Amino acid sequence: MPAGLLGIEDLSREEIEAILNRAKDYQPVQDHFKRLDILKGRMIVNLFFEASTRTRTSFEIAAKRLGADAVSITASGSSVSKGESLVDTLNTLAAMRPSAIVMRHSASGAPHFLARHLPIPIINAGDGTHEHPTQALLDARTILDLRPSLEGLRVAIIGDIVHSRVARSNIYLLSKFGVDIVLCGPAPLLPPELARIAPGVRITYDIREAIRDADVIMMLRVQLERQHEAAFPAGEYFHFFGLRNEHLGLARPGAIVMHPGPINRGREIASEVADSQVSAILNQVENGVAVRMAVLERILG
Question: Does CATH number 3.40.50.1370 belong to domain 13-131+285-300?
Fold first, then answer.
């Protein structure tokens, strides 16, 4: 792994497996996470230019459970709100000698730009519509908790894929393990060229076709904040692309339902599915801490 973690695309399968295996060691035992001193004396800065609950909080918890200090900064609470440039903000933080910066930004490639100019490891917590590497890692860890292997699985990724950094990182990761990936969504949110992101990716605009024989159904939020065209009415979108109980019978027995959150109930997923026994959504949240502990340790330990 390079000095930081900027994306999944450039990681090898072996590097991914090492992180996933280490994350398993950090999963809670009898509802208790391990608290260690591996990163004692280190400082992690969480710099979030976009709203976040799960990612920001889990990075902060992960750092503290490894013994590091963690400081979280939002754009509204920083000098960016006074007109300071991104580079000046990061240079200011770098002068305070943090051990790593965890960064989320609305511009695709922002963490990569900063990584070229700062001597501090940058961890990408989501950059625009590009990648969200730790989300893909925790998704894979969640699947492996419920399945013996990723190989041979059929994964349906459904929703607003054109704006989804989660989808891209998952496609990069799953394709390295030979997973059969099916992308599904409305045509404006699923351009055909997305099938060329990685080998083994197919596209359909029919949710029933996507779910048929799937082992994993990964639903995505409709990202209204990134759309410039007229939004789909919630009821219309849910009718054609919302996951409902009636769809689950098309999947393979024991299929897993996932969602990176936040969930828009009644738009992309029905409440009875989100809260059902087939849902692994809260498992994903729990694994966020373990996976981010493994990432921080690998970069700084």
Answer: yes
